[in-house]
Amino acid sequence: MSGSRAAIRYAKAVLSIATDQKSAEAVNSDMKLIKNTIAESGELNQMLQSPVVRSTDKKEVLLAVFKNANDATTNLIDTLIANKRLALLNDVAISYIQLYDELRGSQVATVTTAVPLTEELKTKVLAKVKELTGKDAEVENIIDENILGGFILRVGDIQYNASIANKLDKLKREFTLN
Length: 178
Prior knowledge:
Keywords: ATP synthesis, Cell membrane, CF(1), Hydrogen ion transport, Ion transport, Membrane, Transport. By secondary structure, the protein is an alpha+beta fold. The chain is about 65% helix and about 15% strand. The protein has 2 domains: about 1-100, Orthogonal Bundle (Peroxidase, domain 1), CATH 1.10.520.20; about 105-175, no CATH class. The protein is globular, with a radius of gyration of 20 Å. About 20% of the residues are buried. The model has no long low-confidence stretch (mean pLDDT about 85).
């Protein structure tokens, strides 16, 4: 838990600096890139978490991977290395993205479907999210064939499960109770 609190503090500090420098959007792009790259590369994540790999080597790798990063992002990496907190980089990136979206009055709506969303459905989801929360949102589509059909919509703390698997599970529970 303390790691996530620390990550939020670092994210708030970077957001404050980036906002002052009018580079918050560029830093947000960097943070999305960092989050996605770490999620896709198990080796990079292992390297960041490893106490065996020297900090100078970690810095060299990160600056090579994220060579077009904003100065605020590079300074964050330097600060995390200096404070021996580089393992928090992914958490800081995630926290920064959330804080930036809150600042903009936007959010991410995660829609889990059995098949990819069409543009028409994406538009309907965005309208529904706007109606429910009063905020704009970006749609992130996760494909999970296990839900069989329908969808699961998650926006912040709100989750709406309209999947076929969920409905079948409810029916199963009703029949076993009677």
